[in-house]
Design brief:
Elements (H helix, E strand, L loop, with lengths): L4 E3 L10 E6 L3 H12 L4 E7 L2 H11 L3 E4 L8 H10 L5 E6 L5 H6 L4 E4 L4 H16 L4 H5 L7 E6 L2 E6 L3 E7 L2 E6 L10 E5 L3 H7 L5 E5 L2 E4 L3 E6 L5 E5 L4 E3 L5 H5 L5
Parallel strand pairs: 2-3, 2-4, 4-5, 5-6
Antiparallel strand pairs: 1-3, 7-8, 9-10, 9-13, 10-11, 12-13, 14-15, 15-16
Helix pairs in contact: 2-3
């Protein structure tokens, strides 16, 4: 496909408008995003690019506030574009726009503000833009950025035609289901209600490495549990230990994780 790039005429940008660059290798996808952007009062479209290299050139020239960035593109993909921009000290807000939900983990690893699944709806784009405006209005805190936590604070999980933001602190337990992790969120201990669950494409080992071990404990090769969601431990007399959770669920503790689990009871 021939590399293409276009630049719109510059004009005075009204207050709280975001100079925006669209990057997608599909002309119809660019056209659809242009139409959607035309309905957004906070968007000032300054250009489009059909590949990663063109996106970098335009970003260096125009210094946009926002990139609406596809991921799966020939040559340099959207994730590589985001990484290159960071290395060039160009810091636009990034909203990934893609047909695939499998890149969510990598996308937020490069500090994307949102992740939209195609076809993008107007209301969903408006929500993403409001998040960008909110982020840009926050005062910078050098002390905070200098001491970033090494642990994940949130996850983006597929739900119907969108991705939802789930705070790590909201997760009660994680259960492995083949190539996916089921995140159990919410719940009511008084009613022994488990709450809502979402599927995340990630290995349990990878997820365990991202969750704060001071808050979560691995009880089994297939289970991670938030420490304060465990109400007690019991054994069946045959050497098998069970973790009793506040929601009423019981999880068998794997032998390789038993010693760590017993530390919860000071044993």
């Amino acid at each position: 496909m021939e590399h293409m790039e276009t630049v719109s005429q510059h004009s005075e940008i009204p207050p709280r408008q975001l100079s925006t660059l669209i990057v997608d290798d599909e002309p119809l996808a660019i056209e659809r995003l242009q139409l959607l952007c035309a309905r957004q009062e906070h968007i000032n479209l300054v250009g489009t690019a059909s590949d990663g290299e063109a996106a970098l050139r335009l970003a260096e020239q125009l210094k946009p506030d926002l990139l609406l960035l596809d991921i799966a593109m020939p040559g340099m993909d959207g994730l590589e574009v985001a990484e290159k921009l960071a290395s060039l000290s160009i810091d636009p807000a990034i909203i990934f726009v893609t047909a695939f939900d499998k890149f969510a983990v990598e996308a937020f690893g490069v500090a994307a503000i949102d992740y939209l699944l195609k076809p993008v709806e107007t209301d969903r784009l408006s929500l993403a833009i409001s998040r960008v405006l909110e982020r840009k209005s926050e005062p910078e805190s050098p002390a905070t950025t200098a001491e970033e936590s090494p642990w994940a604070e949130e996850f983006w999980v597929p739900y119907k035609s969108e991705l939802r933001r789930i705070a790590a602190s909201e997760i009660n337990r994680v259960e492995a289901e083949r190539d996916y992790m089921r995140l159990h969120v919410g719940g009511d201990p008084q009613r022994e209600h488990e709450g809502t669950s979402y599927l995340l494409h990630q290995t349990i080992t990878g997820l365990a490495e991202r969750l704060n071990p001071g808050q979560f404990i691995r009880l089994h090769r297939s289970h991670l549990v938030r420490r304060d969601w465990i109400s007690g431990l019991r054994h069946d007399g045959g050497g098998i230990w069970i973790a009793c959770l506040k929601c009423g669920t019981e999880i068998r503790i794997g032998r390789t994780h038993l010693a760590e689990a017993k530390k919860l009871a000071g044993r």
